[in-house]
Amino acid sequence: ESHLTALREVMGVMQHHDAITGTEKQHVADDYARMLYEAFEACSANTRSALNQLTGERDSFKFDWGYCKQANVSACAMTESSDNLVVLLYNPLGHSSNDFVRLPVKEGNYLVRNDRGQTVRSTLIPIPGSVIDLPFRESEATHELVFQGEQVAPVGYKSYYVSKEESKSSSSAAVMRQ
Amino acid sequence: EDNVSIGNDHLTVHFDENGFMSQITIDGETHPLKQNFLYYEGAYGNNEEFRNRSSGAYIFRPNGTEKAVTDVVEIQVVKSDLVQEVHQIFNEWISQVIRVYAGQEHVELEWLVGPIPIDDSKGKEIISRFESDIKSEGTFWTDSNGREMLRRVRNYRETWELDLVEPVAGNYYPITAKIAVEDDHSRMAVLNDRAQGGSSLVDGQLELMVHRRLLRDDAFGVGEALNETQYGAGIVARGKHWLFFGSSQKAVSPTLQAKERFLQNKVLLPSWPFVSAVDNVLTYDDYL
């Protein structure tokens, strides 16, 4: 409850007219970013707990679920450095969704499988050079692994197992033309 | 030197010989549809009189008309079964990916703008502009904080005689979810992922302001120029626009507006992806 209240309080501050419109001084904007970050981090513990309860196998998940804060520069330390990942999609809408997922990864062959033992169609798309060359981006990801979530239930979730493979019979490489 | 196009079963987006988006084909009909990045230079005033304020955090006040950032765009085309993309480089500080996913009825544009250069000592306000042949007759629609669409008429206010001395800024409106134009045949709508200023300054056109960097305070109270920096350089912004183009006929079911509304829900409340590294912890069989 204290974690949730931290974010509630920050969201209260964010309703100030200067925060809404961006007419605050720069050091105030920086402070707003700090407050949001800390509250967001606190609530990640609640998110992890909720996910473990949703999946019903509380003891089997010994690892941390993460939502990458570097996604806006197509970077994620977890997806680009692990050979095996579980990706969970939570759909907050009141109707089913089939969003596409883009995971920053190194070049390679990846296999995406669902919870019914089926291979999910996926492809590797190069990250644009203008993103890779951003001076503050610290990432080894050169590509994004793209696949489509399949009819994720309203206010429900679906999970996928992503593994890096030796063979080339997994993710399809996109055809590129300059 | 071939004609470049990307698409799926529903639509095809065409590019001209200079790398700009130029046309869209939907239901067998091809319509002109250009997209480009342009910028306004921010006005510099002395801030002593109401009509002589600088462009700043509170007010958008361009100094004259817009300028295109380039005449030629460098492009790279990436095609796969799931998604087709054109990666565009407009200049050293503006690039964009235009993509069409399999089965989707919209076009996604992911723009990257910044750091906006100021070595010429001029503040700049960058826009993405879409040009179509829709005969909108001065009318366009903007959302009201994600809810109903409000009808806007260029150079006009409903409750008083308007003498507009700022023809660009005076026609700008807040866009928090969608802006659209239409005529009896066609409709074009652009959804955005954050609050932006937007307008339709010419019939058939839509524009959204994606980034701004200004060097003077506008004297409305903040006391600072809107000149954000990160790691010693101007800030870089990355975001998305989602473009719908199609028939404006209300007899078609579902209407384009209904599709836009569903997409608005999907893009503003997308699925949350959580990832977990399971090396040496969980095999696929364990996961099953």
Descriptive terms for the model:
heterodimer; A: 178 residues; alpha+beta; 4-stranded antiparallel β-sheet; 4-stranded mixed β-sheet; 5 helices; 31% helix; 25% strand; globular; B: 288 residues; mainly beta; 9-stranded antiparallel β-sheet
Q: What this model shows, in words?
A:
The complex is a heterodimer of chains A (178) and B (288). Chain A is built from 5 helices and 9 strands, in the order ααααβββββαββββ. Chain A is of the alpha+beta class and 178 residues long. In chain A, the strands form 2 sheets. Chain A has a 4-stranded antiparallel sheet with strand order 1-7-3-4, with no helix packed on it. Chain A has a 4-stranded mixed sheet with strand order 2-6-5-8. The mean pLDDT of chain A is 88. The termini of chain A are far apart. By secondary structure, chain B is mainly beta. Chain B has helices at residues 256-268, 284-287; strands spanning 4-7, 11-15, 21-26, 29-41, 67-68, 74-79, 83-91, 94-101, 107-113, 124-132, 139-143, 149-153, 173-175, 178-182, 186-192, 196-199, 205-213, 229-230, 233-234, 237-247, 272-277. In chain B, the strands form 3 sheets. In chain B, strands 1, 2, 3, 4, 5, 10, 13, 16 and 17 form a 9-stranded antiparallel sheet that branches. Chain B starts with a strand and ends with a helix. The interface between A and B is large, with 73 and 49 residues. β1 (84-90) of chain A pairs antiparallel with β21 (272-277) of chain B.
Can you lay out the helices and strands and say which pair or pack?
The complex is a heterodimer of chains A (178) and B (288).
Chain A: H1 2-13, H2 17-21, H3 26-54, H4 77-81, E1 84-90, E2 100-105, E3 109-113, E4 119-120, E5 122-126, H5 129-132, E6 143-148, E7 157-165, E8 172-173, E9 175-177
Helix pairs in contact in A: 1-3
Chain B: E1 4-7, E2 11-15, E3 21-26, E4 29-41, E5 67-68, E6 74-79, E7 83-91, E8 94-101, E9 107-113, E10 124-132, E11 139-143, E12 149-153, E13 173-175, E14 178-182, E15 186-192, E16 196-199, E17 205-213, E18 229-230, E19 233-234, E20 237-247, H1 256-268, E21 272-277, H2 284-287
